[in-house]
Design goal:
homotetramer; about 350 residues; alpha/beta; 13 helices
Chain lengths: ~350, ~350, ~350, ~350
């Protein structure tokens, strides 16, 4: 059955796999101290035009979030996030397990506004409440939407005003930076946030995320935290090799662009057929409203995720495209969607 | 420079890499719910002749230890371990970071005895001290030594007597079970411990450890813990695929046996040349006493780890062999060692 | 300036202070193992008609909550609570600091309903979300409201249905059980909850709360947790002595009843003067809507707490009465409130 | 039975109890923001000649240690302490429960030396081991011994050299500063340590410890931590009132001096009778070696603590004196000890 369940259904892009193959028997030191990691870190910093950044590789997103956020916070400090944030909903309380509270505020299509930051800070009393210290955002968000340049800079200003750190979860950063609506350059992100990560797992890597700590005051001793959280890969070379491949010939952006292109076609097909999108498609996630009967029929042919209830008779489902989605798969989906209307 | 620094200097055994290659574009669900993982779990349980066990895959050893040990303990419970245990010394306080104390007792060649368990329990007072609940051992140990069948069963008995759980860190289980001195079968381990892991990273895998929870009372809800600790691999298939390969045609044991064979030759060469071993070589770790001058010379040709000071003029160094160690590398090492004596 | 800021502005009721005085030079063992504590625990269990309960004394409410809730939970389990719950808002993330998430649901006058429990459980997916295990309620609530017998029993049923524990924060249990609207007996509470505490600090004690663990499966090893959290009082006798006094001659209930009586008069006065209550007064907390100008004037004479904004021109303030509130203080308040209308 | 079990067997010194009595019905704000606390903090800082210090009151020692040490550390940082330290042995893993490791080193009569600090730092490798950040000492120690001026200043120098914080647990600071051997002034302590606490519970208070944070860089946001750990007393006034009394007319030192005087007599009597001290008596703790038969007889008349085994036929027991120990009690003890020899 064709899967549109997520953007990590396949292994990895062939260019990456080849690089792993070629280097397989070369001996290196462990724990990310090898030459591949060294070069990859350098390459990323050059790409970001941010030599002062520190780059650390992780195997997955939850480990990246929990390691870095808990490293940046003192025990009494907390995180402000939209209530749809991955750390709020889908990481099994990983942040709280490190001792920190997350204060969820109502999202607008997965996003948070400077006004909400202002309000939260003003309502938060000292001593008997935690001290809000980090604002967490995702780009693209859990609803596939993105932050515009104006929005990101205004979040930065709100954070600076209240001495807050801004952290961007870039599990799906590739699709955010390559979608039609985007006006952000990756260097804008360095200008605005204190730390973010460049997601590899959901953009063609076998696995891997590159955490970029822009703010120098957050960089010291960071490898201790990675080791302590069990997130320091023995054969760290695997992460360096993959990110080398991703940042050669713009591969990172090409893969993301392809996912967006496929999503645009699917989204267009769906609307043309007369189905209603739950939220307009900006990147590689497509949220569609189906009746329960339609869902029962379609799920016999296509694998996708049920997102949330819509009303008594309808639900919201999600399709996700990736670097590996083919035109054929897109057509097949359109065919099955069309049959729902017969 | 040839590396005898550890057993994870290379990528992975070709059989494993091939399986990753072959399956690369097949779509699967994530988080270890795929067919490869399912089959690998089944294969391992069959191999262990322990259908009641639960098998979970992890990317690395520290994550395996911290996730499982903290899942098995209530907040006031602690772990008894030899003071050379990996969790005591080389995991950056990962266990304590989950809120639990480790009580280190003097090791004998990396091992702990039933008498030490008895003594620790008797000296540990209620309420104002933690409650010892788990005994942690490694096989092979951090000094390369192994537990005999008699030793393991007597540890089991001591644990049962005091209602303690026995946990075995099997990062280097392969070399333990294939060395000359060994009289343990892997099914003995299932008979003796409550949980253990079969280490892949240090035995030919690209990465990966298979945690086996033998005791049914420790199995419930376990996937929550993996996710909460950031240790649930999105493309979990990679772990299933690798363990499938490792448990085909006895590959797991063959790779370990090779490492032991190479270590035996190195160890023999060293003694023949007149150097003193710090501890007799049982598996793939060789601890040698060198003078500082010898170390200065040798380290220009060979990469290895300085283990600990010996006396004012000498240090202990460590060589580690692996599935990828060649006869050539062994000869080269012998040559350079010989030159130290000229 | 007269204080209606809270119910712990004074020291302690003279009967309690006398008992401390009388016993001052008697030698006892420490840590709550003394005879006063022993007798007090027995007295409480007799009063509760629940011999199977375990009673533990704490100095304050936050320590009681964080120690017991974290002792009852496994690492992946979380707490469901109304969003006004003390643990959500006013304990500086104390629960999250022990590693557990709190899931806040919209409150109705500080309360939660069985339907909300049902909904939360149904929307909570396994593995990637925490496992809800405890429902936390307060009686009286943070808005001074109380649970009726029917409400409490229906919460119990909802919890039992989903294998949830029910925990009742009784910081203000006295006023709940002695107010006009109440139809609960303290034995009903034992029938319904797995654990609760009888608040002393806010009901005439110098300090102290008596945690009652009704559910036997939650009782084992509990003193370890108290010590580990730094909450085991060396001179534990002080807690035993106070609870002995509180449960002699119904003192606990008499003090609470007095606070309620004073609150009823204040509430009546306020409404008679034409001010609007923010929420109807059920126990010893009175929430009043004042204009900003009225607040500016009144706060020059009376000390009270600003609770929350009401609209652009108004705020909600809170008066709290206690065992020590006198008729004179009540009259003085009425006088100053009257002047606001001139 | 007369108790020499510890220095907190009685209530509190009458001067303190009177102050609690006198102020009982005065209304104050909560949480240590009242006038008594304010004045007591000022009084202590004046006494210390250290206006830049921050003073916070706690109910007990374990809460003081765990709150302050965890507030001072980042997650990867650990504590070096003698292996007899209270935090190592008798606080039920309270420090580890906040996520931090303690590295215990062999004690010399309860003390640690600069050489041991040097050695520990040199043997501690980065990234895979925690980062040692705090050295914890007690004065007087758990064996009743004290640090001399020369010793304390040399510890300070060792800490400064390695960028370590020095923390002094002053649960029994009074007896340390008033014993015959002492050459330290409390202002020396301010010169040497980053934080310490002045113990009240074991020196005549009903309860209470005064944490003094000397190092300004450790002072920010500290009240958040107290609240988060459940250690912020609602009626904080009780702590202010007690420390006001303790620092009036040198009461703190007088009470401690009395305990030392009584211990000196007991110690003298014991040696005169021919018993062997396990460790020479410097303050109010007396460690005596008794045969098992002697212990069996004596424990029928006197309540004391069994400290540790000595050999097959002997054990070490401990007597503790306090502000409340009378000459009569001392005589009675001597009488019973004498009978052991008949």
């Amino acid at each position: 059955m064709i899967k549109f369940r997520n953007d990590y259904s396949e292994g990895t892009h062939p260019s990456i796999l080849n690089k792993i193959l070629e280097t397989n028997l070369i001996q290196t030191v462990g724990y990310g101290e090898d030459e591949y990691c060294e070069t990859a870190r350098h390459k990323i910093k050059t790409h970001l035009k941010c030599d002062a950044a520190a780059v650390h590789f992780f195997v997955g997103g939850t480990a990246t979030n929990l390691t870095s956020l808990s490293a940046f916070l003192r025990p009494h400090e907390s995180i402000l996030a939209p209530d749809t944030a991955h750390i709020c909903l889908h990481e099994t309380g990983a942040i709280e397990a490190t001792g920190h509270s997350i204060i969820g505020v109502p999202n607008a299509a997965g996003k948070i506004s400077p006004e909400q930051i202002e309000l939260a800070i003003n309502n938060h009393l000292p001593t008997h409440m935690t001290k809000i210290r980090i604002v967490y955002i995702s780009n693209s968000t859990e609803y596939g939407s993105i932050y515009t340049k104006a929005e990101l800079y205004s979040l930065r200003d709100a954070c600076k005003k209240h001495n807050l750190l801004l952290y961007l979860d870039g599990a799906r950063l590739g699709v955010a930076l390559t979608c039609d609506k985007n006006d952000l350059d990756i260097t804008d992100i360095c200008n605005c946030v204190d730390a973010f990560y460049i997601g590899g797992t959901k953009n063609g890597a076998l696995f891997g995320e590159a955490l970029v700590i822009v703010n120098p005051s957050l960089q010291s001793d960071f490898k201790y935290f990675i080791k302590q959280k069990g997130a320091l890969l023995a054969k760290g070379r695997l992460l360096g090799i993959q990110f080398l491949a991703l940042f050669e010939d713009n591969l990172y952006y090409k893969l993301a662009k392809h996912a967006n292109d496929m999503a645009k076609i699917i989204s267009h097909n769906i609307e043309k057929l007369g189905f209603k999108l739950f939220i307009s498609t900006e990147t590689n996630q497509i949220f569609v409203i189906l009746s329960l009967a339609q869902h029962n029929q379609l799920s016999q042919h296509i694998d996708y995720e049920i997102w949330e209830p819509y009303d008594e008779q309808h639900i919201v489902i999600r399709f996700v495209t990736s670097w590996a989605t083919t035109a054929d798969m897109v057509d097949t989906l359109a065919g099955h969607m069309g049959e729902l209307l017969l």
